[in-house]
Fold:
Amino acid sequence: MCSVGDMFDIDISGEAKVNEYICRDCGKEFKGIGKNLRCPACHSMNSEVK
Ligand SMILES: [Zn+2]
Structure:
């Protein structure tokens, strides 16, 4: 009730904010949502957006 902006923000993140990442440690490319994602191959958090 207090903020329409909050609801809109949730709607966006639930839709399609999928980025492509590449792991700096093993070079694995993967897709994910958000920041500080864990590499599915080596579980490193040292990844960056392609
Ligand atoms: Zn990796």
